[in-house]
């Protein structure tokens, strides 16, 4: 394979991202009530067993709320973190969004364009994945596989410190990230290479408001659903816990405030981060429609960092 270029935002996109900030305050994107009303709820099947969802410890940073949700100024700041999760199922223990590696700022963030770096660089004392597992008393050797919600640096860089750990990937997401002429930023390809990769398709029936699904263990306890937009084939992980269903939603939304206020991501840095803003907006409608029925946990929302059992 020849060396690939790394995706960089063009000047026009950068200008639109900044220009969108004041526009979003005056005229935030309006929900499509017709589309919302048209969404069928296909229900949630009863699970044969439950799983435990553990949020690994992380050090949050306070980011301006207007950089999370379009035109939202109150509260002024929101706790943001690079959350990773461990799910324990009777047949496997696996990592959802395997966090970041040691020295992530030098090994991954340094590759990002400066405009994005300004917005997303984590704290210097960010907890790398191996330390996070240790702090949670989880043996890294007991992890069976990783299951990223999507292929961005802040969701897979931890794999760089987990040699040989198999990774489960949505087939179209893998194709997008690994085979195209433009690589996602931040060393995504090196995190995925040289390890077993198990590709899957969402070829199961509609679940809730999501058109496709995959029942990971065949017992309805962990169901993958499609949440496209942030990346072309992002997924969410619907886990049945003893206290009810939880949807780990990756970066479909950056904070629950987007669901509460029905706002898309702020144009800066959202326009630089989302692959398809219209698809992400449609996905947001699908999430808003079910937000009262299940607990939705965005990866970067640090509001819920206790064990999710
Ligand atoms: Zn992210």
Radius of gyration: 18 Å
End-to-end CA span: 44 Å
The CATH architecture term is: 4-Layer Sandwich
CATH topology: Metallo-beta-lactamase, Chain A
The molecules bound to the chains, other than polymers, are:
zinc ion
Individual helix count = 11
Main beta sheet strand tally, sense and closure: 5 strands, mixed
Strand fraction equals: 15-25%
What tags apply to this protein structure?
309 residues; alpha/beta; Metallo-beta-lactamase, Chain A; four-stranded mixed beta sheet; globular; binds zinc ion
Describe the structure.
The structure is a single chain. By secondary structure, the protein is α/β, with parallel strands linked by helices. The protein has one domain (3-297): 4-Layer Sandwich (Metallo-beta-lactamase, Chain A). The chain contains eleven helices and 15 strands. It has a five-stranded mixed β-sheet, with no helix packed on it. A hairpin with a 6-residue loop joins strand 11 and strand 12. Helix 1 (11-26) packs across helix 10. The longest helix has 16 residues, at 11-26. The radius of gyration is 18 Å and the shape is globular. The termini are far apart. The mean pLDDT is 89. Residues 152, 154-155, 251, 299-300 line the site of zinc ion (ZN). The site of zinc ion (ZN) has 6 residues, from helix 6.
Sum this structure up briefly.
This protein has 309 residues and is an alpha/beta fold. It is built from eleven helices and 15 strands.
């Amino acid at each position: 394979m020849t060396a690939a270029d790394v995706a960089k935002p063009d000047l026009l996109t950068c200008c639109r991202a900044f220009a969108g900030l004041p526009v979003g305050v005056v005229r935030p994107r309006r929900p499509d009530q017709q589309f919302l009303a048209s969404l069928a709820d296909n229900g949630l099947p009863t699970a044969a067993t439950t799983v435990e969802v553990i949020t690994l410890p992380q050090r949050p940073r306070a980011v301006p709320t207007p950089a999370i949700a379009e035109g939202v100024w109150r509260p002024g700041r929101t706790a943001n973190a690079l959350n990773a999760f461990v799910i324990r199922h009777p047949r496997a223990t696996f990592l959802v969004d395997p966090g970041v590696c040691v020295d992530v700022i030098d090994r991954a963030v340094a590759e990002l364009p400066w405009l994005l770096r300004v917005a997303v660089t984590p704290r210097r004392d960010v907890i790398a994945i191996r330390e996070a597992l240790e702090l949670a008393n989880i043996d890294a050797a007991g992890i069976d596989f990783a299951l990223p919600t999507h292929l961005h640096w802040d969701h897979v860089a931890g794999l760089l410190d987990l040699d040989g750990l198999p990774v489960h990937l949505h087939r179209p997401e893998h194709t997008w990230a690994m085979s195209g002429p433009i690589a996602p930023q931040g060393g995504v390809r090196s995190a995925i290479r040289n390890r077993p990769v198990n590709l899957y398709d969402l070829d199961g029936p509609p679940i809730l408001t999501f058109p496709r699904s995959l029942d990971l263990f065949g017992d309805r306890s962990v169901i993958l659903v499609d949440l496209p937009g942030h990346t072309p084939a992002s997924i969410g992980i619907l886990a049945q816990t003893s206290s009810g269903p939880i949807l780990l939603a990756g970066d479909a939304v950056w904070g629950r405030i987007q669901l509460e206020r029905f706002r898309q991501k702020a144009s800066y840095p959202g326009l630089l981060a989302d692959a398809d803003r219209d698809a992400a907006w449609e996905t947001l409608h699908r999430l808003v429609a079910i937000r009262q029925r299940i607990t939705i946990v965005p990866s970067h929302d640090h509001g819920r960092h206790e064990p999710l059992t």
